Structures are given as structure tokens and as C-alpha cells.
Amino acid sequence: MAYDKTSANPEFNVRRSQLLTPFGIGALMDINNQSVMVADSEYWNSNKCEKVHDIRLETEMNANGFIEPPMKESEEIIGVRFPSWYFSPYDRYLKPLSKWRESVVAQGIPSRVNIFDKQPYDPRHKGTELVPVRVICACKNGHAQEFPWLEWPHTNTSFDEFKDHKIKLESVAQTGSIADLIVSCETCGKKRSLGGVFDENQFSEKLEELGIQCKGQYKWKKSDDGEGCSEGVHLRVLLKNANNFFFPNISSSVNIPFKQNKLIEAVQCATDYISLQKSLRSISREEGINKLNRDKKVQNLIDYIAEELMQDSAAVKNAVSLYFFEQSTSESTGDVMDYRRPEFEVLTGKEDFDKESERLKIKIFDQNELDESPFNQFISKITLVHQLEVVSALRSYSRIESTDSELMRERALEGEESKGGVNEVSLKRKDGYYVGMRSLGEGIFFSLDPKQVSYWLKKVKDQSVYNRIVAKEKNVRFDDELSYIKPDYYLLHTLSHLLIRELNMSSGYSSSALKERIYYSNSQGEEMYGVLIYTSSSDSEGTLGGLVKQGVPERFFALLSSALEKAQWCSFDPVCIESDSQGRDSLNASACHACSLISETSCEKMNAFLDRGVLIGTLNNPELGFFTEVVKESNL
Q: With bands split at pLDDT 50, 70 and 90, how would you rate the model's confidence at 3?
């Protein structure tokens, strides 16, 4: 079916940004009380979708660019009805939607078929809307399929014997559990409860008994004939609105306008760039250089682009050659912090950028320019980010469990097993693009003085605050997270949260509107201790400036002082401040909803890796906090 925003109930309208998360490709959403899976972006009319480019992110992800979801109200987003089994509340009859539709078609009234397609109903009782079943199946390879409703009550029976039987989904309404639901066959009288379907081992045994296994179908793909799946009978039963059905993996980038990229960025905006890209895409370096030098079509396209940009053809040709055939991801680790280092260098003034570009407007305050404040010894830079552009790309998804990968690109390709037995399913399009969104915004960046952090680390080494964080290494489920089980990361991340909570009160933006971007590295000589707190909007005008004004040094230090004052006492103290294990996988220490947690959409780490103790000390050791001495002197 097609999702048309003009005909959908306003209650179910979806913003374009939501088509990355939570309703990305492969996710389920409810539209007019129907369950729909967002289908492949290959269905979209690419000519009507805006293309977005970020040179660094494209190189890192080996992508040709990013395509935004359709913008106009009349544009359609294609969805696939899933699950396709519906029951009638009138008498609990259960069958595929196609069978219900056949009954409507048999009535011979075309208008009723049109009504049914928009809002399925029971043709025997026209006022009764059909209801999609709540139970579906999925596997760790990212596949999804229907629960075996027809086979469920028919054990030890061949499919040909019961394929035309009529079944019901009845409820005994005794315990309120899944065991109350019973699949009964009206034809042969057999019945079976759904009790135990959420037990993975028990359900796998039942599937083996029924001769059913994963069909290798994704459902959302434009061409999805099914493929072999290594999971076999190890399907998991999920509720269709369960959180673990869809885990999106999104890579984001602050689109820095570097001077060396200025020409190729202009080329990407040229009218004939798409044609040039098609000619040079997916070919070897040697073949590409040969095409640039000898292919008449390619040479003409370069001439047209050069003329449009009023540039020399040789310069355009050189920029195209460098972009397509010289840049490589082979030396890149794919690590998110390595990727962010150029952003950190620009925001701290160590690297220059194209100041004529509208994508980034910043004002940097060095440590010697900061106002007289007891806190300025800890802050090495404050940067007011008046304008920034953020590009977010939906690179993949997983089911059942999150991969929680820190990589900027897919951890594993389709069908290739990744660590922990969970696979990321790539959402890269055939044309080399990913679905992405460009948003404009503003923010405040600050960095801690590495010398002060180093001094503090030596001070707390082997002390209680230090040891309780390092001990959390045993709680980590993903290897990527090990690099964050460090006291200095907890320091940076917790400080970011406290400032966001304070900014919610002073900037005019809600808690979910502000986001953090952490710049962290403790490598000797290459330290990064930076935080960018920003807000962004997909609106062409960006945001209104209420946040960046709070970054003026005088106001920033007032915010920091207020945040640290509130951090000294939590309404759940002394339980919170004395706690060594809170939050997901016990990765937090002295941090709870009353003092340190923020909206999960605002936090990069889903509210993990937090501890107030690293900032203001603990009850038994108040002297171990990073800001303890200043807090004492200021009588906060």
C-alpha cells in the first residue's frame, strides 16, 4: 500500500525525519489502525527527492551521497502490510488479508473494494473493521515473516490436508497472558494455545515439529523472493510493536566546509553531476582515469559542468578525479572518534575551513579570552556555533538485539555474520546512496583542558571513584563500548548531561530538542575532551538562536556553576550518590533520572556511562571530584 500524508489520519502523520528513526526502512508503523512496514527507498521517485552530499561521510561510508525522503505532501511513501493476517472482532475468524479481499471482490461492487483497500473491514458485517494480529516472527539476520497461524493447531498433518481449513483466534481472558490466546480450527476441531511462544527454545522445537523455518524474507525489499537463512528454526516471536523488532543504525556528521572540498561540492550541485556520477561509479581507478581522459561523453559532461560553474575544465576534471579515484576508506578505521577528529580540530580553531560557506559560522573563545571565573582553568575553549549543518544517514538496521556498533559504516554485509550472532542489514541503495537527512542548527562547543584532566586522572588513580568505573568492563556486552569504560569519558559525558539539563531551563528548547556530540580521545598527545551541545531542524531556515546565546562565556560559566550546584544533591540521595551500579548493564554509578539522565534521543549512549561522582566526588571521598576544589571555594 502507499502512505499518502493527505489521506492519512493526522494522528498517524509521519515527519520526514522520522523515516530515519523510529520509522526507518524495515520498521513497522500504524496507519489508520493498520500495521505497515516502511518499504524500500527504491520505490521513491529519485528525481523528486533532494540529494544531500557530505564529502567526509560519503568517503567514510563508501557512498555516492544521501537521498532525502520525498518532501511534498502529495508524494507517496510505499508501505507493505505486515502482518498480513487479520481477524474479525465480530466472531474472531482469522485469515490473510488477501482472502478477506477476495470476499469483497466477489460482491461485485468496485467502490467497496476501494473502501476495503483503504480501511479493511469484514464484508459479512460492514461496520466491523478488521484487526491485524499482534504476533509476528523475526530472526537475527534481519528477516521477518508471518507467524504460522494455519499450521499452529495442525501438528502431524500434511499441509494439503488443512490448507483450506477455517481458523479462529479466540481468547479465554483468564490470566491476561499470551497463553489466553488459542488458535482453533472450525473445520477439524483442533486447537492450540499460544502459550510458550516467547520461549525461544520451546518455540524452535515447535517449529521443527511443524517443519517451518526462516524463509529469508525481508518484506520491505522491492525484490524479495527469499533466500537461505542460517537461523533455520531459530525464529523469535515478537509483538509487532515491540522495541526489539527494529534497531536503526545511524551515522551522523557535522558537514564541515573544508576549503579543499569547495570545488567538488560545487560540482555535486551541478545539473549534469548525476549523469557524470553514473558514468564513473563502480569502476576501477585505472578504468576511471582512462574514461576521464578519453571518453567523449565524460569529457563533454565535465565541460558542461565547468561552464555552469564558470570554472576551468582542467580544474573540474582534477577535482572529479581526486574525489572518485584518489580518496579511499582503506586507511580509515571506521571508528566514530577518528571520524570526529577533523570536526574537533575546526571547532577548536586548530584547522581552517571555508569561512564564506553558510554551512558553518563559529566564534571561538580561547582560554585567555574567557571571563574571570573560577572555572576557566578547566575550560580550554568555548565555541559559539551560530550555524551548522548536520547530515544523518540510515546505514543499516538489526532485529532482536542492537549491534550497538561504533563504526561509521556497516559492521557486516548482508548474510555475513557479525559478533554476537546479530547481523546488520545494509540499507544501501543500488545507486550507491543511503537515505539521509540534512538539518541546520546551532550549538555550543566547549573543551576541557587536557592538562587538568591528566592531573585529575593521576589524582584518582586506584581510588574508589576510579575503581568502580574500571570494574564495569565486565558488564560490557559490546567490544566497542570498552573504550568508554574510562573515568575521563564518564567525566565528559556526565558534564554534558548536566549542562543539557540546565540548558533546558534557560535556552527555550525542550529536553528532546537538544543533542550531544562527544569528542573523546585519551591518546597521548592527541587528547580530545570536547562536547558539542546542539539543536537542529530540517527546516531550511534552521533554528532561532536561543541556544547559542547561552554559550557566551559569562552565561556559560553561570550555567556550569548552577549545574554543579544541583549535581551535589539528588532527590534520591544518599542512595544515588552511594550507588556503584545503575542503568543499562549497570554501566552507570551515581546517576539517575532525578539528577543526570536526559531524553534518550538526546544522548549518544542511551543514558549509559554516567557518574556524578567524577564531577563532585562521593560522600566518603568528596575530594576526588574534578571540580571539587572550585565548588568548595565558590561555596556552591
A: low
pLDDT tens digits for range 19-39 = 888 899 999 988 877 899 999
What is the spatial distance between Cα 631 and Cα 636, in angstroms, rounded to a whole number? 6
Closest CA to 142 of 407, 403, 477, 409: 403
CA torsion through residues 207, 213, 214, 217, sign: negative
> For residues 144 and 219, is the Cβ–Cβ distance under 8 A?
yes
Q: Which three cell numbers stand for residue 127?
A: 461496520
The CA–CA distances, whole Å, from 289 to 65, 86, 302, 331, 343 equal: 21, 57, 13, 22, 31
Distance from C-alpha of 309 to C-alpha of 82, rounded to nearest angstrom = 48
- Looking at residue 419, what is its pLDDT? 40
CB 382 within 8 A of CB 551: yes
CA distances from residue 288 to 63, 173, 295, 313, 464 in whole angstroms, order as listed: 17, 67, 10, 17, 59
Q: What are phi and psi of 166, to 5 degrees?
A: -105, 130
User: Which cell is 404 given?
Assistant: 550497538
Give ∠ CA 604-610-613 in degrees, rounded to 5: 155
Q: What pTM did the predictor assign?
A: 0.86
| Amino acid at site 296 | K
SS3 40: coil
Q: Write out the three cell numbers for 462.
A: 586506584
Alpha helices in 246-335 (DSSP H): 262-268, 273-280, 285-294, 296-309, 313-321
- Residue pLDDT, tens place only, 348-364: 999 999 998 889 999 99
Q: How many CA atoms lie within 13 A of 231 on its CB side?
A: 30
Strand 433-448 and strand 528-537: the pairing is antiparallel
Q: Exposed e or buried b for every residue in 208-219, given b needs 16+ CB within 10 A?
A: eebebbbbbbbb
